[in-house]
Amino acid sequence: MSDLDAQLITISTNYSHVPMHKFKAIRKINKYTIFDFIDKLSCESWDSTFDSEDVNVMFNSFLKIYLRICYSSFPLKRVINRNSNDNNWITLAIKTSCRHKGELYFRCRNSNNQELKRHCQVYCKILSDVIKEAKIIYYDKKIQKSSK
């Protein structure tokens, strides 16, 4: 036997059934963590920030202290992203138009017809504008319905 034997480790998680793109990291922010943040900022000795004559060194020192306190007061929390498919603005007409755009694209790709290519470009531009407008309308309605 040589000293190059392979080693294998198996780690099981509770979230093995959920794809990785379904997770997001958020900071835990509530009244307790905010008070903790304010308390840590007030108790911090800022002497090291003002020890230098160089503004850049002073700023970097301040930022390092501030971020250390911020990250310790507001820890990251890994949560399942439940809003990953927030595409409620996609209508049946947009889905149909996107399928038609795909068909046009494949026809244009295998053709030298310039008129067909121009039609495909115009169609894509119009579809893009329709999608933008649908998103604007959807999110405007969502904002208007939200509580203040």
Q: Averaging pLDDT over every residue, what do you get?
A: 84
List the helices and strands in order: EHHEHH
Fraction of residues in H or I helices? 55-70%
Strand share of the residues?
5-15%
Q: What number of domains?
A: 2
Quickly count the helices: 4
Oligomer: single chain
Contiguous low-pLDDT stretches (5 residues minimum) are none
Report the major sheet.
Answer: 2 strands, antiparallel
> What class would the helix/strand composition place it in?
mainly alpha
What strand line-up does the widest sheet have? 1-2
Shape: elongated
Topology, number of strands:
2
The Rg value, from CA coordinates, equals 27 Å
Which characteristics define this entry?
single chain; 55% helix
In brief, what are we looking at here?
The chain has helices at 31-43, 55-73, 92-109, 114-145, and strands at 23-27, 76-80. By secondary structure, it is mainly α.
Provide an overview of this structure.
By secondary structure, the protein is mainly alpha-helical. It has two domains: 20-80, no CATH class; 92-145. The chain has helices at 31-43, 55-73, 92-109, 114-145; strands at 23-27, 76-80. The chain has a two-stranded antiparallel sheet with strand order 1-2. It is elongated and about 70 Å long. The model has no long low-confidence stretch (mean pLDDT 84).
